[in-house]
Amino acid sequence: xxxxxxxxxxxxxxxxxxxxxxxxxxxxxxxxxxxxxxxxxxxxxxxxxxxxxxxxxxxxxxxxxxxxxxxxxxxxxxxxxxxxxxxxxxxxxxxxxxxxxxxxxxxxxxxxxxxxxxxxxxxxxxxxxxxxxxxxxxxxxxxxxxxxxxxxxxxxxxxxxxxxxxxxxxxxxxxxxxxxxxxxxxxxxxxxxxxxxxxxxxxxxxxxxxxxxxxxxxxxxxxxxxxxxxxxxxxxxxxxxxxxxxxxxxxxxxxxxxxxxxxxxxxxxxxxxxxxxxxxxxxxxxxxxxxxxxxxxxxxxxxxxxxxxxxxxxxxxxxxxxxxxxxxxxxxxxxxxxxxxxxxxxxxxxxxxxxxxxxxxxx
Length: 363
Prior knowledge:
By secondary structure, the chain is of the alpha/beta class. 34% of the residues lie in helices and 26% in strands.
């Protein structure tokens, strides 16, 4: 599980389950907060004070919500906040006896289905799956993307592909990506294509590639022009960053986007930002990481020095920070198994380097 878990209960029996569930989750290292009516709120359960809607609104899209009680109660409370499955919070419902746990919102992308399965193992409840692709045991493109850290570029196309799968249609599947290893059997709903042109010959297809397919043609543009093929972009890039103190976040973002674009990449493909520990409180860097929802990690100069070689060195930077090249060393330290695809690039008030983690697709 990830993010904060918020559990609501409404009866004495339900609050007993709430307390038990929160206790189990906390033991597993999860951040879990239980709420109940004031008369039942004790022993680790917070009083809701009639502000359930306020609690939900304040954490929507960031937390997981579990309602212990009738599904109708959950629906009424979350209704004002529901937008789409790509941004909604995972929402689950349990009966107060703890017999069933049902994901009712953001099952795949948000992970409610996975959370339901984990709760079932934890408590002995039965996880009830109602999503069509789960019930029919069909390939689900959103599950595949989430499991493999791929960015969905067209949400409507993803929905159309899922509908086509349920109708029994074959979907083209092509990986136009360097050094990618596919693990597991190809689902029967997919037809593996070696060339992108073959994928575009089907009514619907899935293309795993960067924004630039490496052949002078933008994969994203081609998908837009021809239609029917969903581009899934790997989110496996670590950005190493060095910068002047007090850099503005707009300058930092613009500089990083420029470096990414030159490599056929986009900001949403960055899975982490790394730098030297002198920058651990640099507002622009950690603010950008927070906006993107990715980790920002820093390392002391002594650790960065363990990287054996870099593409360029600076005596000034070494005198200032203790290492000759912050951005490359930080990115390679963060992802030692990765490949440096862009050495140190200088932009306004900053430097950036890119390391790409090897891509492994689990089907």
